[in-house]
Amino acid sequence: MPLSEAQKEKMKQKRARILETAIVLFAEAGYEGTTIKQVAAKAGISFGSVFTYFETKETLFHAAVTEPLDHFSKKILDFDDASEKPLEELENMIGQHIATYASLSAYLNLVSYVISHHNLFPETFEELDAFHETLKGKVARLVENGQQKGVLLEQEIEHTVTGYTSLLMGLRLNLIDEPASDLWAKFIPIALQLFGPRYH
């Protein structure tokens, strides 16, 4: 007998709860320090239910790291690298990026964990790295656009973009402020300076 829409929705919500819980626990205790039993208990479901959605701990860990990329990457990549007003586009992009990263505290701690243990999780790291390269490439095209239009100083684009993405990660990993805090917006002009804006 096929599942009803209500049953499908309930399963979807339960899977999401497991994943959200796993992100927090893996970020706090790492892979070795987190057990399926702990995930189940904190998510408020039975131990066996976890395996209905994720075959192994390895599968759960990989999903916890990579699935959120599909959600937040749309926000992160939502800017026009061919904009006729690249300086304005750059400032709007920075604001969107900082706001998004500010909302991803536990997840970015998990990302940082995978990066620092990339040899242990090569496939998971590969997906993170692919997204990072996509982001850097699009930001680089916007910066090149701005340099060509004369609104950004001529400087090494790759180093500038790497500095920018490092700043985004560093802000969230070093600050404990809530996403709604006014503090985050104060970093927008600071981040913009990395790109060498020319104001006429």
What features would you describe in this structure?
The structure is a single chain. This protein is an all-alpha fold and 200 residues long. It is 70% helix and 0% strand. The protein has nine helices and no strands. It has helices at 5-29, 36-43, 47-53, 57-76, 86-102, 105-116, 122-148, 157-174, 188-193. The radius of gyration is 20 Å and the shape is elongated. The chain starts with a helix and ends in a 7-residue tail after the last helix.
Index terms:
200 residues; mainly alpha; 9 helices
Topology overview:
Layout (H helix, E strand, L loop, with lengths): L4 H25 L6 H8 L3 H7 L3 H20 L9 H17 L2 H12 L5 H27 L8 H18 L13 H6 L7
What is the 3D form? elongated
Instruction: Calculate the mean pLDDT score and round it.
Output: 94
Question: Span between N and C termini?
Answer: 69 Å
Give a count of the beta strands, DSSP E runs of length 2 or more. Answer: 0
Low-confidence residue ranges: none
The helix/strand class is mainly alpha
What kind of sheet is the major sheet?
Answer: none
The helix/strand series, from N terminus to C terminus, equals HHHHHHHHH
What is the gyration radius calculated from CA atoms?
Answer: 20 Å
Query: Approximately what portion of the residues adopt beta-strand conformation?
Result: under 5%
Question: What percent of residues adopt helix (DSSP H or I)?
Answer: over 70%
Give me the number of helical elements: 9
